[in-house]
Write a structure and sequence with these properties.
There is one protein chain. This protein starts with a strand and ends in a 13-residue tail after the last strand. It is an alpha+beta fold. The chain is built from four helices and seven strands, in the order βαβαββααβββ. Helices cover 22% and strands 30% of the residues.
Length: 180
């Protein structure tokens, strides 16, 4: 079952608000969803989980993400927030700062925190794969477009303990999945 939720910022300028509308999608783990630009990373996630509900972080190697290194982030579930243990350079460039070892919500515009926590709670309790697209506020800059896939990871194969996040740009890089 897929669920789409749109959250818009308020204001009088419709063009500006269009940039600030975020769509949060909760998608099933099976069958694997098809999301434009993310097929290679979804296939990798699926390959690594095998017969389990979700893969473990330890199932992935650095080489698995060839072509995606800068577009990958990994976070650990910490209460009702996420702490990034890896934060790729494309995330740093997009959002203007490095969140490695920092909490997600501590870096966010206050108006987005409740919805973000609710979204990740839905992903954790589903469990679900998540897809967020829209505009992110950045200090000293206008809202900037982003598109992120949030794939759950589990140390025991059942409970979500971490997330593998992939940032998609126009071409999304080469496939990290090889035939070997």
């Amino acid at each position: 079952m897929s669920r789409d939720i749109s959250v818009s910022a308020s204001g009088s300028d419709p063009e500006h608000n269009k940039k600030r509308t975020n769509t949060y999608r909760c998608l099933p783990l099976r069958p694997l969803p098809e999301i434009a630009g993310y097929s290679p990373i979804l296939r990798l996630w699926d390959l690594k989980r095998g017969d389990r509900l979700m893969p473990r972080r330890a199932d992935f190697t650095f080489e698995d993400f060839l072509g995606w290194h800068g577009a990958i982030a990994i976070s650990v579930v910490e209460g009702d927030d996420l702490r990034f243990t890896l934060y790729g350079t494309q995330y740093v460039e997009l959002l203007g700062g490095d969140l490695t070892n920092k909490l997600l919500c501590a870096s966010m515009d206050e108006s987005l925190i409740a919805r973000t926590k609710s979204y990740f709670a839905d992903l954790i309790h589903g469990p679900h794969i998540g897809h967020v697209s829209g505009g992110a506020p950045t200090e000293g800059r206008d809202f900037i477009a982003f598109d992120v896939l949030d794939m759950p990871l589990s140390e025991n194969g059942q409970d979500v303990t971490q997330f593998l996040h992939a940032l998609c740009t126009a071409n999304c890089g080469p496939s990290p999945v090889t035939d070997s």
